[in-house]
Amino acid sequence: MAPYESDDSTTSDEIDDLRAGRRKAARYAVPVAVVGVAAATIGLVPALADSGDPDLPEISAQQLIEKIAESDVQQLSGTVKISTDLGLPDLGGLESSLASGAMESGDGSSADPSAKLTELVTGTNTLRVAADGPDRQKLSLLENAAEYSLIHNGKDIWGYDSASNEVFHGTAAESAEKEKEVPATPKDLTEEALKSVDDTTSVTVDGTAQVAGRDAYRLLIKPKQSGTTVGSITVAVDAKTGMPLKFTLTPSSGGAAVVDAGFTKISFAKPAASTFDFTPPKGAKVTEEGEVEAPAEEYSKAPKAPKAPEAPKAPKAPKATKAPKAPKAPEEGAPEVIGEGWNSIAVLDTGGEGMPSGSEVGGALGGFMDSLGDKVKGEFGEGTVYKTRLVNALMTDDGKVYVGAVTKDALVKAANAG
Fold this sequence. Notes:
By secondary structure, the chain is an alpha+beta fold. It folds into two domains: about 10-300, outer membrane lipoprotein receptor (LolB), chain A; about 345-415, no CATH class. The protein has helices at about 10-20, 30-40, 60-70, 90-105, 115, 170-180, 185-195, 295-300, 360, 365-370, 410-415, and strands at about 75-85, 120-130, 135-145, 145-155, 155-160, 165-170, 200-210, 215-225, 230-240, 245-250, 260-265, 285-290, 295, 335-340, 345-350, 375-380, 380-385, 390-395, 400-405. The strands form two sheets. It has a 13-stranded mixed beta sheet. A hairpin with a 5-residue loop joins strand 17 (about 380-385) and strand 18 (about 390-395). Helix 4 (about 90-105) packs antiparallel against helix 10 (about 365-370). The longest helix has 14 residues, at about 90-105.
């Protein structure tokens, strides 16, 4: 089936409707949300094989976004891939250096979920995922001859690294603040991207696809502005459930996708309850969140805590009535924002000197910093632009930081104007 566009782009009024019921986001979060999609999105999924374009009823862009917002999939299991190419150098040495420092200081565990994030910033990874409502999820990262699992079951959150036989334990309440802004599903990734939809954005339906054996619509999100590093975002949306199955972010510079995330297998059947059970293996080193390690035997002998009751589903938010927009009050502690839409640049003043050079830092981290940085000069003085294929940051020698999903030239221009 040839691609079709039921709408050339969303109107301003439609965009207001689409935003109803979404999480409130500060304006300055737009560029940060995009990097979240690339770096810490790393929650799940890319590369799926299209096997023909299914013949589906036509749907408008607004209807498709509403379908995503109304999607309420509670149970699933499947295999996903995530490929991320930010144009970063090999992080192997840096990972080892940071991990060693954490272990020596006694505050870290190889099973801590945050210790695994850097592994997902580059390359292609395969994961197995399962979910049964808001209180039970499991994600397993498949590695060479090893596996890392992150399990949420009721009040408990477990991380287990089979390679080191280490266990991390926390509670949902303790971890919520740390994890609430990290996209954890394809739907989360899509919602983060949709926060950027405004008058500077074109949103259309770009035909259909098959993802993991499921018929899907393709939602195409494209900036109308030049100067941004974002080329386009394509979301494959399950035609039946409205759940995003694949997320692809392509840079304006061309080449491979920055993030390509999609299910390769998926089932919406209820996973077995045993999927979310976990008891630390005998002899494993167990580290409590924010505490020192404890022997695994303490957990194996302790009675199992009763399962927390499943939270009732929240009612769907009604469509907002259109009213004159009130000016937004700046959030306390929020950085200044210059520009608009995809060209938004957040400006922070550290009140001190700029970042130390790689030679001053030394070691793997110093080499990593030097590999990312370009020295620049302008009316603002001197500084360094730290670049990726998506988000760039200019750190001036007098301590100001300009960051956004924009080109190096756009950052220098903003600093000169500032």
